[in-house]
Amino acid sequence: MSGVDVRAVVDARGVDVAFSVPPGRVLAILGPNGAGKSTALHVVAGLVRPDAGVVRVGERILTESPGGVQVDTHDRRVGLLMQDALLFPHLSVVANVAFGARHGKRSSRAASREVATRWLGEVGVAELAGRTPRQLSGGQAQRVALARALAADPEVLLLDEPLSGLDVDVAAAMRTVLRRFLVRDGRSSVLVTHDLLDVVTLADDVVVVESGRVVEAGPTATVLAAPRSGFGARFAGINLVRGRVGTGSTLVASSGRVWHGTLDGDVGTATDEPVVATFHPSAVAVYREEPHGSPRNTVEVVLAELDGRGPAIRLRAEPQSDGSPGLSADITADSAADLRLAPGERVYFTVKSREVSIHRAR
């Protein structure tokens, strides 16, 4: 498969970005609303013509400005999956997917239908082949849209918030389907998302875009562990612990501390598999003395900062032993007053195992 190189300048939208995705890797583009993330994807897809720039997939030049090269969208072999499934309402599920196969390879109707049936099975909705889009749930429609994108056999797959709006269970199932595809066939993929779980489970590399410019880039683990941009730091605000699979539903951190949680469906049983544990600061309880009881995860930390600008008081601890950002806890103002905390003090953070999710790391 082929890598993709992008330089896109869109003056009207204040966008000037450049990035590359090697073959077989997934790049996540992060940034606040209006930063230019979707514009970059639409330039690659051929939906937006840049004022200046180049889009190259392997040896093929799809866009070159001011040289005048602008390959039509339907000839790019670039798949685009968005939040809205955009299925054809008058076609059955299998006909929608067959359209993608016929569009991508110019194959016969019979061959396209065979490809469509195979991809519907791949994404787990083969039994829905005869339904129409109005008979599908949101999660089912997204699976069909993914099957249609893959049936076209794209060299590059673009994912523009495809899991946004889905409920937690459906999003988790779709994430597993996406991961299985993305790691299997070696295509280059670009993902726009606001969800940390999408990034840690799907993306090899990260680019952070602010005000139409790339302000941070690097491997996912590096950017999340030590963000260097304002948005990167805010994005990584959820607690994240890195380690490897332990026995049972556990993560073993580099410090040797064992974290108990719930394993995501894509986590294997190999004890050396790299994983991450995530949990929200609001799930953390804070004590001055080491507690005993139901919470299975207890860690002693040194407070680095107290932030009262939000609806809760956020306590931030000093960095973890592997250099990752310090853990955070959100507590009420009343609790903060009772505890009378200050930076530099040692306290205990506890979180119940059911609040901790353990996911495969990239």
Sequence-ordered SSE layout with sheet pairings:
Blueprint: E1 4-10, E2 15-21, E3 26-30, H1 37-45, E4 52-57, E5 60-65, E6 69-70, E7 78-82, H2 93-105, H3 109-122, H4 138-151, E8 156-160, H5 168-182, E9 188-192, H6 196-202, E10 205-210, E11 213-219, H7 220-225, H8 230-235, E12 239-245, E13 250-253, E14 258-260, E15 262-263, E16 274-279, E17 285-287, E18 297-307, E19 313-317, E20 328-331, H9 333-339, E21 346-351, E22 357-360
Parallel strand pairs: 3-9, 3-10, 7-8, 8-9, 15-22
Antiparallel strand pairs: 1-2, 1-4, 4-5, 5-6, 10-11, 12-13, 12-16, 13-14, 16-22, 17-21, 18-19, 18-21, 19-20
Helix pairs in contact: 2-3, 2-4, 3-4, 4-5
Describe the structure.
One of its GO terms (biological process) is molybdate ion transport. Pfam families: ABC_tran, TOBE. The chain has 362 residues and is an alpha+beta fold. It has 2 domains: 4-232, Rossmann fold; 239-360, OB fold (Dihydrolipoamide Acetyltransferase, E2P), CATH 2.40.50. 25% of the residues lie in helices and 32% in strands. It is built from 9 helices and 22 strands. A hairpin with a 4-residue loop joins strand 12 (239-245) and strand 13 (250-253). Helix 3 packs across helix 4 and helix 4 runs parallel beside helix 5 (168-182). The chain starts with a strand and ends with a strand.
Short account of what is shown:
The chain has 362 residues and is of the alpha+beta class. The protein contains 9 helices and 22 strands.
